[in-house]
User: Which sequence fits this backbone?
């Protein structure tokens, strides 16, 4: 596969390491609450097994070490969008 | 007599004779021959024995679809089995041997299996060898493997070189026949970057095998002119003898190029190159592959496909026999009779299964319309054929055409599903070719050559235009229109005679029928049950025929029956070509530390750790066992001073105003208040609460930190930290870079380590116990101004330091320190002594951080902060992880100190049991993860995990090793065996 890196242009997927769904961005912040155990459990283990468009995290290990959010169709491998994970994370409310 | 079947003409160079051997017999051919054409020129039809029944078999085809003529080429380590003679370019000295027979090829002892064939039908091994069950592995399977099969391996490392390469283009054109060349000419005229690849070593495809004229010139000349024209263009790359074997995602194509088969022994040039071609678009012009007809005994040597017979005549000037007959169900078969006749070869009969008027007259040949061949005779070579009208015809070469199948393999690599086209009685590609791929010519089912050329010509221009190039307005080549009429003919009911569908796997029409009768309805199931379409040729000539027979058996259409799924590779690819140069020491990179050469000079024994070569121990003269070296290194370090190369530890430079906050989020213990000039040990967990890695982090200045990780996890920890920063906390002011390879680092340990370092560290730096206490860190200079980093940390439990210098000074520093240490009797120590000392001190390492152990399990529960969120905090609090009966890390020592000493192995791997329990899985209480002989304690000691271990110190259990045979009583103890108060660290 070819991943069109937002900074570096098209790069072979061999240069990347795959992690998983962008659900991993939503790490719970309510660690002090008793009930957050369930949230962390969901965060760590529970994923949809998507047949179709999937937002996923890839790491450009053999490149600039960017974490990327790649929108990939798991049925066709078509990649429709590639963004820097830190930009996506910020829009999802992550900060400090 | 030599080359009895050779005629005039052809695309061979008769001025250059090549000598080769077949089963030891010396034979001759010409430059331009394949092994198959040279064998046929020498009247060698019988070239192998079949897979299952050991039937005599001959060459059937002229290309990579060949099912029978697969041979062992070369000898010794160079021997390559299962090589298709039809695509092996002849060279001087080529050694070929037929395979799968015992005794000579002409009299195969295993041919007896043919007489038992009624017992060996489809799925026979599933049925016959059911009982007794225990016989399968020891008796049945080896016997079957021994009698059935293909070639044998060299059983030596492959001495050939293989390489990998990368190419980029706008348009990849697959196949350089009439269509591919036409597409390439228009596409290339636009200036687009074009790669034209063909599996044959001469481009031109079928044009080199036909008498067809294009634009008034012979097809092969037209092709040569087109190739010349293309090769003169800068934007065109021609890749002959290159097979596109797979279509991968996003326009990536796998291509295997054959090179320099001749001078392999004397050349280190690659024999094959595995190219990865990145193409924006591709045009598939892979042509068509002929299929056979299933009639009785249709597998005798001398029975070949009609188009191949024509190729051997026209391209290689080889007549396949003296009295040739043709059996066809389509117009193209007649062309073979015509071409042979024109070349002066006697054609005795043309048999056409269609009840129509003869397509043409063939001088001297009997013509039979609406007639089939039903049986043949001749064990090692065809002698005669019997027709459905009862007539017998003497013939030594039968050319069969069951029609042509568009070669649509690559269109299906992304799950395209071929569509049945009744008018050409074959499958054609659907519209789901891989993105970017277009198809033209016979591969698309356009069987009339003139139409195929026009189609490909136009497609070349269209694709170039779609990419934004401007193709020139060229005129498509033209050729007389020759109709292609066909009536499907899958086979002839042949009574008791077997009619072969798949030659390579010995599958007959009856096998297919049997499979259907037994309930195998899906084409995929029939494939697996009968092995139809498996092995090296993947049924290129057999599949459609088999599907036709299935459809008839089940009374359903061809479309309903469908094809099996096509997958890469199109042709077999040697594993060596996938490995390329990554073999032996080049399998992955070898990493040497800066002072590697020094270690070599000391005679170090090396061990590979995370691709690094690390010194394991340094044998001294007179030492005959590694334990002697390791014990000496430990004792000398603990009594005076030792130096260990710890360069391989992961080192990460971290800067920014929020680093301490960041470290607080990734370590279990508090880092927010780590003062400048101090180092702290830290434990990192995964989010699931299990220990991931440990190491130290030093604060060199307000916003500058340096972290170490274990050698093995250097890469994964850095990746994890980048994840935590970029994905979880993007706004923290943190900047990281791995400096593992930028710094050489050495542990200097032992009571005299400070004295040694005082001679190295520039005197302006105070490294006294007061000036530079335990856990201090600083940027300093050594040896008169060389920048360095000094950390007072200890893995050995002694007064110790780690000193880091830029990589280029590593070797010099090592030598300088050894010189400075001479007066203290300094010793270099390796990873074994390092391991001994860490186990004596109870430090967890790789065997303990196995991904299943939490901070609590490791006895580090006290370090875990409850006042902050960090990776692994919340899930680490789960009830199951807090249970007191979890396996917890403690120390173990033998009750009898001399235990194991005479055995020479440690407790590592032993399982722990109550004293009176039997050694069963149910009674297992834990295991010893690390164990060594401690020269300081004078016995074996170990770290390990046992249920509720932290509360069981002083108890006695058994350590049982059923593999190596030991069963000893051990005491559960603190993992801190040596200097448990840590006094030696702080002096």
Assistant:
């Amino acid at each position: 596969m070819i991943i069109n890196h937002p900074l570096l242009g098209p790069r072979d997927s061999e240069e990347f390491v795959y992690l998983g769904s962008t659900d991993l961005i939503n790490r719970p912040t309510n660690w002090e609450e008793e009930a957050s155990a369930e949230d962390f459990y969901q965060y760590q283990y529970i994923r949809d097994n998507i047949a179709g468009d999937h937002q996923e995290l890839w790491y450009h290990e053999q490149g600039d070490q960017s974490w990327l959010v790649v929108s990939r169709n798991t049925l066709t491998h078509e990649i429709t969008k590639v963004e820097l994970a830190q930009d996506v994370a910020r829009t999802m409310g992550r900060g400090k | 007599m030599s080359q009895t079947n050779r005629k005039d003409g052809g695309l061979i160079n008769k001025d250059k004779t090549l000598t080769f051997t077949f089963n030891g017999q010396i034979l001759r051919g010409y430059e331009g021959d394949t092994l198959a054409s040279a064998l046929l020129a020498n009247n060698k039809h019988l070239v192998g024995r079949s897979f299952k029944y050991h039937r005599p078999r001959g060459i059937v085809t002229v290309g990579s679809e060949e099912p029978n003529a697969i041979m062992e080429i070369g000898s010794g380590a160079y021997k390559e089995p299962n090589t298709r003679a039809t695509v092996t370019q002849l060279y001087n000295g080529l050694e070929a041997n037929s395979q799968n027979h015992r005794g000579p090829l002409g009299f195969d002892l295993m041919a007896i299996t043919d007489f038992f064939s009624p017992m060996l039908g489809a799925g026979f091994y599933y049925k016959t060898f059911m009982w007794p069950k225990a016989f399968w592995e020891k008796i049945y399977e080896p016997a079957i493997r021994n009698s059935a099969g293909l070639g044998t391996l060299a059983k030596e490392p492959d001495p050939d070189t293989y390489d990998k390469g990368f190419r980029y283009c706008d348009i990849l054109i697959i196949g350089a026949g009439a269509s591919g060349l036409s597409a390439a000419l228009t596409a290339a005229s636009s200036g687009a970057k074009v790669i034209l690849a063909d599996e044959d070593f001469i481009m031109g495809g079928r044009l080199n095998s036909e008498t067809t004229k294009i634009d008034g010139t012979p097809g092969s000349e037209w092709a040569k002119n087109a190739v010349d024209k293309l090769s003169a263009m800068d934007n065109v790359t021609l890749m002959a003898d290159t097979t596109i074997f797979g279509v991968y995602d996003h326009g990536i194509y796998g291509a295997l190029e054959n090179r320099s088969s001749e001078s392999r022994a004397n050349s280190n040039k690659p024999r094959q190159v595995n190219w990865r071609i990145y193409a924006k678009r591709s045009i598939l012009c892979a042509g068509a592959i002929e299929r056979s007809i299933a009639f009785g005994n249709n597998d005798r040597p001398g029975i070949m496909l009609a188009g191949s017979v024509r190729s051997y005549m026209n391209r290689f000037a080889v007549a396949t026999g003296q009295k040739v007959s043709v059996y066809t169900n389509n117009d193209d078969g007649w062309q073979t009779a015509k071409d042979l006749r024109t070349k002066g070869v006697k054609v005795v009969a043309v048999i056409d299964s269609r009840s129509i008027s003869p397509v043409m007259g063939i001088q001297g040949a009997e013509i039979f319309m609406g007639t089939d061949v039903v049986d043949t005779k001749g064990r090692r070579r065809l002698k005669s054929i019997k027709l459905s009208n009862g007539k017998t015809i003497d013939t030594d070469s039968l050319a069969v055409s069951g029609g042509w199948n568009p070669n649509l393999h690559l269109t299906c690599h992304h799950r395209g599903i071929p569509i049945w086209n009744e008018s050409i009685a074959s499958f054609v590609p659907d519209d789901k070719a891989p993105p970017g791929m277009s198809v033209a010519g016979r591969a698309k089912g356009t069987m009339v050559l003139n139409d195929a050329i026009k189609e490909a010509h136009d497609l070349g221009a269209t694709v170039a235009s779609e990419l934004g190039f401007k193709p020139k307005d060229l005129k498509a080549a033209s050729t007389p229109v020759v109709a292609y009429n066909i009536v499907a003919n899958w086979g002839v009911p042949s009574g008791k005679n077997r009619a072969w569908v798949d030659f390579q796997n010995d599958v007959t029409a009856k096998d297919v029928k049997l499979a259907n009768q037994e309930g195998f309805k899906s084409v995929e199931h029939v494939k697996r049950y009968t092995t139809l379409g498996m092995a090296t040729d993947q049924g290129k000539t057999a599949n459609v025929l088999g599907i036709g027979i299935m459809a008839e058996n089940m009374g359903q259409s061809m479309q309903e029956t469908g094809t099996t799924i096509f997958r890469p590779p199109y042709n077999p690819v040697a594993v060596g070509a996938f490995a390329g140069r990554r073999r032996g020491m080049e399998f992955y990179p070898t990493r040497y530390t800066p002072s590697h050469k020094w270690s070599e000079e000391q005679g170090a024994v090396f061990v590979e750790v995370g691709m690094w070569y690390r010194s394991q121990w340094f044998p001294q003269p007179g030492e005959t066992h590694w334990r002697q070296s390791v014990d000496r290194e430990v004792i000398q370090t603990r009594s005076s001073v030792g130096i260990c190369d710890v360069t391989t530890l992961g080192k990460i430079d971290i800067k920014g105003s929020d680093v301490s906050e960041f470290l607080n989020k990734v370590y279990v213990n508090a880092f927010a208040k780590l003062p400048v000039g101090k180092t702290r040990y830290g434990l990192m967990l995964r989010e699931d609460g299990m220990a991931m890695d440990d190491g130290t982090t030093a604060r060199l200045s307000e916003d500058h930190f340096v972290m170490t990780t274990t050698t093995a996890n250097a890469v994964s920890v850095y990746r994890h930290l980048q994840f935590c920063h970029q994905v979880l906390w993007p706004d923290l002011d943190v900047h990281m870079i791995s400096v593992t390879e930028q710094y050489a680092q050495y542990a200097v340990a032992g009571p005299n380590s400070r004295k040694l370092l005082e001679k190295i560290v520039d005197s302006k730096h105070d490294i006294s116990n007061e000036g530079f206490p335990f856990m201090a860190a600083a940027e300093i200079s050594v040896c008169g101004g060389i920048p360095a980093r000094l950390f007072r940390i200890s893995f050995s439990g002694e007064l110790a330091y780690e000193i880091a210098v830029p990589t280029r000074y590593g070797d010099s520093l090592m030598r300088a320190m050894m010189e400075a240490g001479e007066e203290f009797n300094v010793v270099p120590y390796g990873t074994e002594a390092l391991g001994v000392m860490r186990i004596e001190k109870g430090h967890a390492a790789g065997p303990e951080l196995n991904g299943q152990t939490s901070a609590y399990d490791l006895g580090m529960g006290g370090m875990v902060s409850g006042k902050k969120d960090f990776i692994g905090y919340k899930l680490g609090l789960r009830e199951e992880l807090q249970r007191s009966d979890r396996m917890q890390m403690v120390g173990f020592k033998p009750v009898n100190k001399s235990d194991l000493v005479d055995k020479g192995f440690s407790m590592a791997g032993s399982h722990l049991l109550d004293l009176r329990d039997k050694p069963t899985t149910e009674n297992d209480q834990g295991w010893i993860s690390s164990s060594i002989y401690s020269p300081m304690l004078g016995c074996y000691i170990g770290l390990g995990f046992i249920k509720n271990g932290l509360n069981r110190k002083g108890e006695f259990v058994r350590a049982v090793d059923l593999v190596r045979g030991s069963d000893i009583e051990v005491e559960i103890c603190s993992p801190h065996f040596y200097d448990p108060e840590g006094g030696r660290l702080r002096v």
